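Before we proceed, please read the two lines closing this message. Tell me what the token row says about the fold.
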Amino acid sequence: QVQLVESGGGLVQAGGSLRLSCAASGRTFSSYAMGWFRQAPGKEREFVAAISWSGRSSDYADSVKGRFTISRDNAKNTVYLQMNSLKPEDTAVYYCAVHGGGTVYYTGSYDYWGQGTQVTVSS
């Protein structure tokens, strides 16, 4: 069993920054790719970023490229999402997830999810 706990969300002004953390349980954490998704009210959950098990490769949604950076520290069982130049459109609940196979862009490719952390960006 794997459990994920997100933290670091909050309220920031447009142009500001936040750093989200996702703490995972389990010895096998380092064996899996990880992803961040987000969901705004009335909208579908959407892909934000993913990182390989080693941290050597990553993918980003076009909407966040150049602004967000995903990273991981396997020794600490933690994945991070550094968010810079935030926009009101980034407002959503952000979820961390463990990749289980298949394309990283789809929610169905992930086996475990955290409860989410709220990010609100004011204009």
Summary: The chain has no helices and eleven strands. Residues 94 and 117 are 5 Å apart (CA to CA). The mean pLDDT is 95.
